[in-house]
Design brief:
Helices cover 50% and strands 5% of the residues. The protein contains 41 helices and 9 strands. The chain has a 5-stranded parallel beta sheet with strand order 4-5-6-3-7. Strands 1-2 form a two-stranded antiparallel sheet. It has a two-stranded antiparallel ribbon with strand order 8-9. A hairpin with a 4-residue loop joins strand 1 and strand 2. The radius of gyration is 36 Å and the shape is globular. The two termini are 35 Å apart.
């Protein structure tokens, strides 16, 4: 442990002779300037300059203060950027980019509807019309309309003279967890707001690096940001509320309806299907398919996209399509595409019949399209061998899938209604009856087997490492197969397809060999050839597979892997579900003990108590102690479980001289510290630099832990290797509350460090008048001389501080009364 901040500037140049003389330069003397000398007794005007070490230290301190201030600002800005990046997530804007732009001349009618006009022109001084809720059938075109409104409002806000922030989020049930959750919404809104105003990054200052964002902490930061923009107004567009959990949506609407949060400065537009039904007192509503403008948009689309030469036939087809569409824009888009293909194939004479055959229900239309697609593939399946996998999927889906427009593109259904049809409405079972019973689980198991077959191909097994640069050409599917085999197995296990047999024969050696290829190709996860399957599953958050693993070892078994043990691999990679499962399995038959008792008191994963440590420089050697590493890099619960399971000398020291108690206090683990004290840990055992646990708690400004140690009898006057007592350390930390506790507990206020400085020297040197007054009130000597003869009164005189000990009564009771009056 390094000496606490502020110590180095105090002790610098305290050695050697007690005085130095510095002559004034000839130029200075020539101008007749008078100079002062400080002789330790007073200030005299002698016409020359004699500088003692006090003045040198003061100048040096100013230079150090400037350097420290610059470094502090730099570190703070770096921290803010790290936290801002932690708010971002993959595919954050994927849904918005994947929505097709509104067809020419469509959607403009919406800008003139009374509901929209009342909403967009609302008076922010009144709490009315804050919300506009657009509802419509699946596939009606709600998302397209929302994207159109976003573009229109962006133009208006850019031209506005007032400060208006335009924020948006498009829920996506086909995406990852954050794309379909309100946690993702709050993170996205915060990123947009903080990117628009770089000077607002300070709202992140109370958040620690490594903090795992929760809805609660996100709300707190968002509310703080809004409050610090008192003259701004906000427009927020939120699409597809029905694609998130209803409970979370209700909570989000309640939060955004709270005038103490939004201060009547928000206009919020929602879009969803006809559910969820949530009453908003200040909301306006509009049903999309019931609007004449929407019906005219469908008519315009048909006019522009239907390519039938015969005008009479084209007119009849348009009328038939409009009547059958029932306001569902997606139905029109799909059917127009089908009719155009029939026309191009020379089947113009059957178009009327084809329209009659096509179901009017959108889900039934999906089924009809897929049945036709299967027939086509059976006739010409081999032809797809010449397509890339992406083109193959897009083609074989017959327009029901699309490629997302984002940095890491993915193929997804064109609309949530397609996904609902296949998975919620048993569309896949109607196409493939053999899947009945557990569609999702069986499909995931099939995908797992496909990946397994590819990874274990004989050609892959014989591929030479010196030809690694050719791997992505020879085996284009290898990165996906390798990276997702365990993912699909995990999903299959979650959905009820047992994976124990698969795990028992999992080709770990072949998988690790392929991992070496992938690592070189695209920064894959790094494992040694000896990595255990449990270690790999832990780092991939495969909690279901960990449960099913038939031959798992202890999560504390040391391996020659980057994070030593599976439990740290889970924590380092943010695999919290895997971490929970590992702990539950490890503690299944935990014997009763003090550590077991405290282990059970701590929640499985407390997100807000302690910041996750930085694993960037994590290195473990055989000489290192595993438990010390678990305390330094793991969680409090992990450390308690290890102590409950494994015999350990709790007073042993690591290579840096730290006891377990010292290490626990360094991390702020108060429950672990209490358990160690109950088990007899040495409370004042010195560690690195002679720091006791109490010194360590005070360096961290951890009042709770410091008081715990004092209550258990910690030595409050013991000095470290530099002679600093706990009282002096609390003064370096500017901790008046803790200093008062120590003084009232009987700490020696006259003790000196290696340089003869008392606590009062330190307080006055730091310009901390309040602390100095506290010490004087308890009897500190203002004339106590340090090794170089300097007294607190000398320092005060040099700094222009007025210290009058006669202001205070001699008794501690009178001192307490004085501070009580000051509050």
């Amino acid at each position: 442990m390094e000496p606490p901040f502020g110590i180095s500037s105090l002790v610098r140049n305290e050695y050697g002779s007690t005085r130095q003389s510095v002559e004034a330069s000839p130029g200075q003397q020539a101008h007749g300037q008078s100079w002062n000398s400080f002789d330790g007794l007073g200030v005299q005007n002698t016409g020359g300059l004699t500088v003692g070490r006090d003045l040198i230290i003061n100048a040096d301190r100013q230079s150090n203060a400037n350097t420290e201030a610059k470094q502090k600002r730099k570190n703070l800005e770096k921290k803010r950027q790290i936290l801002l990046e932690s708010l971002r997530f993959e595919q954050m804007d994927a849904r918005r980019w994947s929505i097709r732009k509104a067809h020419t001349y469509t959607c403009a009618w919406f800008l003139e509807t009374p509901e929209y006009v009342n909403w967009v022109q609302k008076n922010t001084a009144h709490n009315d019309h804050n919300f506009l809720w657009i509802k419509g059938k699946p596939g009606a075109g709600k998302s397209t309309l929302m994207k159109f409104l976003l573009e229109q409002l962006r133009e208006q806000t850019e031209q506005s003279t007032s400060e208006t922030f335009l924020l948006s989020f498009f829920f996506n049930a086909r995406g990852n967890d954050l794309e379909r959750s309100t946690a993702g919404l709050y993170r996205s809104l915060l990123v947009q707001l903080l990117e628009a105003r770089n000077d607002m990054h300070h709202v992140l200052d109370n958040v620690q690096i490594g903090h795992l964002w929760t809805i609660g902490s996100l709300k707190c930061v968002f509310e703080k940001a809004v409050r610090e923009l008192p003259n701004a107004s906000f427009i927020c567009l939120i699409d597809a509320l029905d694609e998130s959990e209803e409970g979370d949506v209700r909570d989000m609407i309640s939060f955004l309806s709270d005038t103490s949060v939004t201060q009547n400065r928000f206009r919020i537009c929602f879009a969803s299907r006809h559910y969820p039904h949530i009453t908003i007192n200040t909301g306006l509503g509009i049903v999309l398919e019931a609007q004449m403008g929407h019906k005219q948009d469908i008519e315009r689309y048909i006019d522009s996209r239907l390519v039938i030469q015969n005008q009479v036939l084209a007119g009849e087809i348009r009328q038939a399509l409009q009547a059958k569409a029932s306001g569902v824009f997606m139905w029109v888009v799909l059917v127009v595409s089908i009719l155009n293909r029939e026309h191009d194939a020379g089947n113009e004479h059957i178009l009327h019949e084809r329209i009659q055959q096509l179901p009017g229900d959108l889900e039934e239309l999906f089924l009809d399209i897929q049945r036709a697609a299967i027939t086509t593939q059976m006739r010409s399946g081999l032809s797809y061998a010449f397509y890339t996998i992406k083109r193959y999927i897009l083609t074989s889906s017959k327009g029901l899938t699309e490629l997302t427009k984002s940095e890491t593109s993915a193929i997804q259904f064109i609309h949530e209604s397609v996904r609902d049809f296949f998975l919620k409405e048993d569309g896949l079972i109607r196409i493939w009856p053999s899947l009945s019973g557990n569609v999702t689980g069986k499909i995931q198991d099939i995908l797992k087997k496909c990946c397994l077959t590819y990874v274990t191909m004989e050609q892959v097994a014989h591929f030479q490492e010196d030809s690694i640069h050719l791997a992505h050409h020879v085996f284009p599917f290898l990165p996906y197969a390798h990276g997702h085999i365990l993912h699909h197995a995990e999903q299959a296990q979650i959905y009820g397809v047992n994976q124990q047999d698969f795990l028992a024969v999992f080709p770990l050696h072949e998988w690790l060999r392929v991992n070496k290829f992938i690592k070189n190709l695209q920064a894959g996860c790094r494992y040694t050839p000896q990595a255990s399957l449990l270690y790999i599953l832990a780092g991939r958050n495969s909690s279901a597979l960990i449960h099913a693993h038939p031959n798992r070892q202890s999560c504390f078994k040391i391996e020659r892997e980057p994070y030593i043990v599976p439990i740290l691999a889970a924590y380092a990679t943010g695999s919290h579900e895997a971490m929970r499962t590992l702990l539950e399995l490890e503690a299944y038959s935990l014997p009763e003990s003090t550590f077991a008792h405290y282990y059970r008191l701590i929640p499985h994963f407390s997100r807000n108590t302690h910041a996750r440590p930085n694993f960037g420089n994590f290195i473990f050697t055989e000489a290192d102690d595993l438990l010390q590493q678990l305390i330094q890099y793991g969680t409090e619960k992990v450390s308690l479980l290890y102590l409950a399971m494994c015999p350990y000398d709790i007073n042993a020291k690591d290579l840096r001289g730290r006891t377990l108690l010292c290490s626990a206090i360094e991390r702020g683990f108060d429950v672990l510290a209490r358990a160690l004290l109950e088990e007899g840990a040495e409370i004042s055992a010195p560690g690195n630099f002679g720091y006791t646990p109490l010194h360590t708690a005070l360096v961290r400004s951890d009042t709770k832990l410091a008081q715990l140690l004092i209550e258990h009898g910690a030595n409050i006057s013991v000095a470290n290797n530099l002679g600093y007592t706990p009282l002096q350390v609390s003064l370096f930390q500017r901790d008046l509350k803790m200093a008062r506790i120590l003084v009232k507990s009987g700490a020696n206020i006259s003790g000196t460090d290696a340089f003869g400085n008392t606590a009062l020297h330190i307080a006055v040197h730091a310009n901390d008048i309040e602390l100095a007054e506290l010490l004087i009130s308890y009897g500190a000597d203002v004339l106590a001389a340090a090794n170089i003869g300097r007294t607190p009164l000398h320092i005060a005189s040099l700094k222009g501080i007025a210290l009058d000990p006669r202001r205070f009564a001699a008794s501690p009771a009178s001192a307490d009364a004085y501070f009580a009056r000051r509050g």
